[in-house]
Amino acid sequence: MFGLNSKDTSLLLVVAVLTLLAPFILNPFPENSDLAQFNAGYPDLMQRFVIFGIFAIGFNILFGLTGYLSFGHAAFLGVGSYAAIWMMKLLTLNVIPAIFMGIVVAGLFALVVGFVSLRRSGIYFSILTLAFAQMSYALAYSVLTPITGGETGLQIKPIDRPLLSNLEPGEIGRANLFGIEMGNSYLLNVGGWQFTFNAGYYIAAVVMLIAFYISIRIFRSPFGMMLRAVKSNQNRLNYTGLNSKPYTLAAFVISGMYAGLAGGLMVAMDTQVGPERMFWTASGEVVLMAILGGVGTLIGPVLGAGMIKYMENILSKINDAILHQWFAFMPDGLENFKVAIIHPFIGKGWHLTLGIVFMLVVIFLPGGLVEGGQRIGRLFRRKKRKDKPSPDATPAE
Amino acid sequence: MEAIVLQVLNGLDKGSAYALIALGLTLIFGTLGVVNFAHGALFMIGAFCAVTLQRLLSLSHEVVDETRTDFLGNPLKVDVPYLADWFGVDAAQSIINWSVPLAILFSIPIMIVVGIAMERGLIKHFYKRPHADQILVTFGLAIVLQEIIKAIYGANPIPTPAPPAFTGSFDFGALIGMENIIYPYWRLIYFGFAMVIIAGVFAFLQFTTFGMVVRAGMADRETVGMLGINIDKRFTIMFAIAACVAGLAGVMYTPINSPNYHMGMDFLVLSFVVVVVGGMGSLPGAVLAGFLLGILESFASMGQVIDLLPGINQIIIYLVAIVILLTRPRGLMGRKGVMEE
Amino acid sequence: MGILEVKGVNKRFGGLQALGDVNLSVAENTVHAIIGPNGAGKSTLLNCLVGKLIPDTGSVMFDGQSVLGRKPHEINQMGISRVFQTPEIFGDLTVLENILIPCFGKRDGAFRMHAFEQVFHEKSLIEKAEAILEDVNMADKKDFHSASLSRGDKRRLEMAMCLVQEPKLLLLDEPTAGMARADTNNTIDLLKEIKSKRDITMCIIEHDMHVVFSLAERITVLAQGTPLVEDTPENIKGNPKVQEAYLGESQH
Fold first, then answer.
1. CATH number of the domain that residue C64 is part of
2. Hey, are the CB atoms on A351 and B341 less than 8 Å from each other?
């Protein structure tokens, strides 16, 4: 189906079903229970899951396939965001032109940055991309203030009168898709549960599914195979009559366009942008996502993005009071001891947990969560039939 | 002319920090072949050694001072450092004031232990892995280290002043027959300190057998390994030395900028640019590029320059890095064959 | 007029004259060996042919066109394939994928943006690749991860990658270097078989005389960057100049 083989089709379908049912799946705990804070089924977070999923999928097309480690990918996300918000300020509050503009501008910017950076490889490439991103950040922060709003960034303000949107005097424009506002939500109460179906989330989710589908096609295409060949042995590729330069540049631009798409969607959801979106830590974050999930795999980056965003939002909300509540059944001394042990890893310390998890993954699971899943799967399969040796793992699952 | 001298001087302190961190990075890269993204964290740990020592020295106990009363008429409770009990009040105060220089001694054993633990515990297992993996795992380590520091010391910068004797500024111009060059003492001390350390490292590599083996190892790892010299142990020591250099750079930097948990990352990103501009694997290149970029940054921050090219001070280092990498692929002083693939 | 014409090629590295006035003509459909002691400039000459180095002076014509100033992939597209001293393959890819890459290169040129097509739809190319694997007796290994192959199989795979391009000229850079005698003989048989099945010109750079005399129809002897003599294997065997060049090598 969709021009994919059966395995990829089922992967796509599973992801589609999970994404569309996310408001249920991410809200497994009743509203009033103690565990409700682990629910992730609120629009803001779900939107971030899919948007960062797109960002990570795009990053993975570059790093996972070609092996070129960009440390400046957030620049494309930022540029896409700025382009999108200007479309919404000037032209229309419909999100489609904004997202489209985000993709185009980020793609053009990636073409320029990639053309220069790809003249070097290895760590030199990483430093060049980092340098471009930091320059973009510094410029957006200072000199380009008329375009970027400087430190405060850009928001949609009451004075913005987009050309094609008929706003009442004094009305603040809100992002919409042919009249459906991104903020619209439908609440469903079932028993103690409350499920939120948000228009913005579903629009972003559909976009992510399309982006995911395209990435599967790219992975399975001759083009994707060439990119893996670049990673494997660029020298051989050149002596086999193929020019590795345009292949890597195309991958870089595609990956920049994915970042621009993510940036455009971000603006579509929250109608604001600031320069910190381009800071190098943001570029580092997408690297973490791809590695954590499983670089070079199809679904890995999406998992990684989801995991990091979940940790950022849920782990960081847990505080000592909540911990005390959990361990209340224990004797006081033990309770305080446990709280003291866990304290550094939660709340504002969630980065520490992230760093440790990330290191463990790089050391023990270079294939990320996907490899972890495969290992567990293999363990079960081996138990079932011990006589048959497992076939060689095919690359780029 | 005065303006130029002043800008050069202003660039020296940052340049010194860049040079010291880049020197350590290059030592590690040249000997162990590892790209260490956690090197900035070592710089930060050094800085927090100074903070820790200051706090240790200031440890106090409460004493009820009968001669003074608070506003309710009760006897006033005052904190008296333990040091004051042992050495008397004045001596204690001057010891505390001198905590930053004292932290040099305090930090060396700590940095050696941290360095050895890092190399033996983690880096060692990544010698044979691709550079990308090394970058990633040390990047993760850097996050962990800085978060640990944040958990202990909080997120705010902690002022760690220099000894009072060196806090002021002096008229540097008078020394060289110019006017209006007022320069803080400590920055000059920092520069001198950096020069001493750099000279020490170079002398160590140049004049000891240990250094000779390390230099040979930097030139050709495999051959030296084949000679039967236990290169691994020496590399561990080299890592510890690099950690010390970064740590000392951090200790002495605290009076210039109050340490905070993310200072390591801030410096690391720039130091990496410095290393690449200097040429991966070249020690003189790292030092040269460190000072060069520090001074360049300072010139770019001049009012006249900013009027002409707004924002240039923010991007100058990156701009220079891009131009140099594109015109001189191996950096200023890089050797052929290092990190070319 | 040979398929490959090298005229008056000079190449200097600093003070070292690596190649001095090299003239070489490789006739179509022959196996031409270039031999010489270490440092004779064999590898430098080869690198000038494939675009890795550019000679200081002189011309290199292939099939009537100059190769000078062209990039390696352009030269390959003209019809020159190269086998490396140590097999260069795509280790992360499967054996079949390794063969498919040159297939795409042959069909689509140096770059084509086929990002939305699917590899498994390219039935005719896959059949072609499987056929060539059959030729080198590796059909049963087509789904193997190529990094896991034995050294001999890697060499076969690399040959197959070159052959599937149907090159006019196959350059082999010491194809048996570091091999045991049995492997060397296998490689000789493989090359003989390849030659017997199709019209192909081969140019072998080799150190091992056994290989050279088993395969070559013409031999050029290089010494100190200059061709000493070019002749048939029989005449080379008895040539005192050649013996001197090799004896000279063993003396230092």
1. 3.40.50.300
2. no
Assembly ipTM: 0.89
Per-residue tokens: A114: 């990639």
User: In chain C, how many domains are there?
Assistant: 2
DSSP state letter for C165 = T
Instruction: Give C180-247 as a DSSP string.
Output: -HHHHHHHHHHHHHHHHHS--EEEEE-S-HHHHHHH-SEEEEEETTEEEEEE-HHHHHH-HHHHHHHH
Q: Do both C73 and C181 map to the same domain?
A: yes
How confident is the model at residue A160, as a pLDDT? 77
Query: Exposed (0-12), middle (13-18) or buried (19+): which is B67, by Cβ within 10 Å?
Result: exposed
pTM (2 decimals)? Answer: 0.87
Chains that touch B (3 or more CB pairs under 8 A): A
Residue of A nearest to C106 (CA): A241
Q: Where does a domain end: C144, C165, C186?
A: C165
Neighbours of chain C (3+ CB pairs under 8 A): A
pLDDT at B221: 63
Q: How far is the CA of B271 from the CAs of A206, B49, B133, B241, B274, in angstroms? A: 42, 21, 20, 18, 5
Residue A237 to chain B, least CA–CA distance (Å):
14
C93/A236 CB distance under 8 A: no
Summarised one tens digit per residue, pLDDT across range C204-216 is 998 888 888 888 8
User: Per residue in B264-293, pLDDT tens?
Assistant: 888 888 888 888 888 877 888 889 999 999
| Residue in A3, A5, A239 closest to C76 by CB | A239
Domain boundaries, position B310? 2-54+99-327
Nearest Cβ partner for C94 among A220, A231, A394: A394
Note whether A210 contacts C: Cβ–Cβ < 8 A: no
Task: Please list every residue in chain A whose beta carbon sits closer than 8 Å to the beta carbon of residue C87.
Answer: none
